[in-house]
Amino acid sequence: MTPPVAKLSDLRKRIGRFLTEKACGRNEVHQFLAKLEPIGELAIFGDMIRDIAFTGLEGFNSDIDLVIDVEPPLDENEQFLLIISNYSVERNKFGGFRISLISGSLIFGVHKIPGR
């Protein structure tokens, strides 16, 4: 088992590796995040951060929770909906979107910041 991270910079590296490792088919994840970045700031929250911090990449097997701060103009909200419509999408019980990537083996919970 991988030891817990000692520094925030180590956690950033672990999460970066998880999201971009091409050998595991995560190129699709990188492309998905790259499509979202231009329309708003992204932040990861939830179990992923804790699990990867304490048990490493192999200890994480949950969904990835994202929040996006989509800027107020209507066209950017429409762009957000257009981007996610290219994936397998369901509304979740929290008002966000459950999005499947890598043939359903990786799930994102994507939430827009309320009031935007």
Q: What is the CATH topology descriptor?
A: Beta Polymerase, domain 2
Identify the CATH architecture. 2-Layer Sandwich
Number of strands: 5
**The number of domains:** 1
Structural class: alpha+beta
Ranges where pLDDT stays below 50 over 5 or more residues in a row are: none
Instruction: Give the helix level as a range of percent.
Output: 25-40%
Q: For the terminal residues, how far apart are their CA atoms?
A: 41 Å
* Distinct helical segment count: 4
Radius of gyration: 15 Å
Q: Which H/E pattern describes the elements?
A: HHEHEHEEE
Strand content: 25-35%
Mean pLDDT, rounded to whole units? 87
- The general outline is globular
CATH class: Alpha Beta
Reading side by side through the largest sheet, how are the strands ordered? Answer: 1-2-5-4-3
The biggest sheet, with number of strands, parallel, antiparallel or mixed sense and barrel status, is: 5 strands, mixed
For the structure shown, list the relevant keywords.
Beta Polymerase, domain 2, alpha+beta, 116 residues, five-stranded mixed sheet, 37% helix, globular
